[in-house]
Amino acid sequence: SASSLVVKALKEPERDRKKTKNVKHEGNIPLKDIIDISRTMRERSMAKELSGTCKEILGTCQSVGCTVDGKHPHDIIEGIDDGSIEIPSK
Prior knowledge:
- The protein has helices at 2-9, 31-41, 50-64, 73-82; strands at residues 28-29, 67-68.
- By secondary structure, it is mainly alpha-helical.
- It has a two-stranded parallel ribbon.
């Protein structure tokens, strides 16, 4: 799923899911990794374009609690919407 790919991209150490609950994942993911995750999830996404899938993954980053390129994920979503951040078409 998208959240497991985001947590893998954070490169956090393995943890026992039965013992530790409600973990806040702190870390930073480069936008390039978000685009790679979006390409992986592309066929399962309902979005028309890759930029829509990227926004879905950025929403997952927001719920996981990590940052993207040192910024809050929602700021990057707004950058994609207004055209200041370019996402490749494929």
